[in-house]
Write a structure and sequence with these properties.
Layout: H1 2-13, H2 17-23, H3 36-51, E1 54-62, H4 64-77, H5 86-100, E2 106-108, E3 113-115, E4 121-123, E5 125-127, E6 130-132, E7 135-136, H6 144-159, H7 165-168, E8 173-177, E9 196-209, E10 215-228, H8 234-249
Parallel strand pairs: 4-8, 8-9
Antiparallel strand pairs: 1-10, 2-3, 4-7, 5-6, 9-10
């Protein structure tokens, strides 16, 4: 029985390094050793995908009002050297939505759920050889320009590997934006102990049917929310995603 158990464990972990190397004998390859970061990412993502019951909710978001509002704000902020990105608005929209649907502002803690009061939003930042997910604490309380400069600072220091552990630990919910790489949509893996992660695609001009049934062109961004079903059920997750969409489609209300 012990041998069978060991065999099952080995099968779950996949073939050993030696077995894989034997399969590619005679083929030219370079062996790349894993650094600590890659090992940590591999372990955490494997654990996340195997232990978290993920489900996925998708929505399209019309961006035209936001893009217009952003360009107006940026003209006014130019003198202060501030330039807001669409991602800054997404951070704010998620932070506000977590306040509007407080049951989703929670983390899985083994035998209980911890429901947080502040909106601590994590944002995935790609760096050479991996990624960091710095956390913008109290994001619901901060202005767009404050979030923008904090995000720039965190992303810069993430790329230089100068973040303190306290800056990338915690948070209840994450954002992963691959829009700048031309990705239309994707499904992200929940980063434990977070309850969810929003995968953001690129904004694309598409024909849409307007309120009165007429055909118009709109800039549409596709998002997919991956959710930990142990913390958030389907209807509750749908309510959170609806709140995120409403914040982004009515951007002025985010400043109220």
């Amino acid at each position: 029985a012990a041998a069978a158990g060991a065999a099952a464990a080995a099968a779950a972990a996949g073939p050993s390094a030696d077995m894989v190397a034997r399969m590619y004998e005679g083929r030219e390859y370079e062996e790349i050793k894993l650094d600590g970061m890659r090992k940590t990412i591999a372990a955490r993502l494997t654990e996340a995908k195997q232990t978290i019951p993920h489900f996925y909710l998708r929505r399209d978001i019309k961006l035209d009002a936001l893009l217009k509002f952003r360009s107006q704000l940026n003209k006014q902020l130019e003198a202060r050297g501030v330039k807001l990105s669409v991602n800054d608005f997404i951070i704010k929209a998620v932070a506000n939505a977590l306040q509007q649907v407080p049951a989703c502002n929670a983390v899985w803690a083994g035998d209980r759920v911890l429901q947080l009061k502040p909106s601590d939003v994590a944002v995935a930042v790609a760096i050479e050889g991996g990624l960091f997910t710095p956390v913008l604490k109290d994001a619901d309380m901060k202005s767009l320009s404050a979030l923008s400069s904090e995000m720039k600072d965190l992303a810069k220091r993430a790329r230089e590997r100068k973040l303190a552990p306290t800056e990338y630990q915690g948070g209840t919910f994450a954002i992963s934006n691959l829009g700048m790489f031309g990705i239309d949509n994707f499904d992200a893996i929940v980063n434990p102990p977070h309850a969810g992660i929003l995968a953001v695609g690129t904004g694309v001009k598409k024909p849409v049917v307007g309120e009165d049934g007429e055909l118009t062109v709109a800039t549409v961004m596709s998002v997919t929310m991956s959710v930990d079903h142990r913390v958030i059920d389907g209807a509750l997750g749908a309510e959170l995603l609806k709140a995120i969409v409403e914040n982004l489609e009515n951007p002025m209300t985010m400043l109220a």
